[in-house]
Specification:
about 375 residues; alpha/beta; Rossmann fold; Helix Hairpins; Heat Shock Protein 90; 5-stranded parallel β-sheet
Length: about 375
Amino acid sequence: MVDSESLPAKILVVDDNEANRLLAQNTLEDEDYRVVLARGGAEGIALFEQEQPDCVLLDVRMPDLDGYAVCERIRALPKGSETPILFLTAQRDIDTFDRALRAGGNDFLTKPVQPTELVIRVQSALKLRRLSAELREHYDVLKQQRDELVRLQLQKERLMAFVVHDLKNPVNSMDLHAQLLLRDQSLHERARASVAAIRTDARQLTRMILNLLDLSKADEGRLVPKLSDVDLRGLVNEVLSELALNAEGRQVALRSSIELERIQADEDLFRRTLSNLVENAIRYAPADTSVTVTAESGGGGIELRVADAGRGIAPEMREKVFDPFMQADSGGEQLVTRAGRGLGLTFCKLVVEAHGGRIWVEDGEPGAVFCVRLPNGS
């Protein structure tokens, strides 16, 4: 007679999507788990009674019974209360998370689930099932704390989405009205200059709002560049043109020397990265100096440099300038940071690293040079 304790753990996968079932099956069977597949909620409940699995992976949205109803019914069955149930869902929001907890779920994974994460979560659920009563009490406390952290993260994501949406619309409206005013040939020259300044600031504010959203995505590991063939010289010229009014107001000249025609990058993310770096350089460049953008290939990569002639950055602070919310030390001989608004350089670092590259600061003698290196074909 085979001892059931010596057999690999049995996992019941309940999902109406065949591709999702097969992915879970292949991933878990590679780890020597026994896998039972159910194509819907009713079949999942029947197989739970028949197979008595050690763990359940449960989809939320299914045509017959949704995952919440299936979970509640399993919990009412013999041994159902002690079997870990892990919800799998493409709906990453706090309402879904709360409903999963109320239905009796032990864990919550967002699709698409990475195979490694799936295995780790299943392993953890099975280990926790074997805990003694005393340890389980400690686990319940930790789980409650974990659930609260997840809820806070989901609340932050919802708030971020609301903030970005609610701010972006009026800022876009400001930019649109500024464009309409600039088309009025009868507008006085001083008024035209003011409207142009409003449009420049509105576009900078739009960039900051989008940066904030992308920083949130990066925290969740969801900042994935969409690579395309980018006209680098054209992109640099567009960014310098957009920031020309800002530079003129500070009596700073904008120059470029671009040896590369095209690069592989996410055009929107790279545009905002370059805009942040140039705007940062303009902010700290003295009057009657220039900010220079150069780009060349070599050493197996692509290097872009943004240089100004302002006060440099102390060597010990050159890594910290990319930390969020660093503030400038205006009283010292050297600037501690060039972030200005707190998140610009942090965004640049995350984007460059998402492209597989790196960003650093060099001494411009005088000034600072922000250097971006991307691998060829990044």
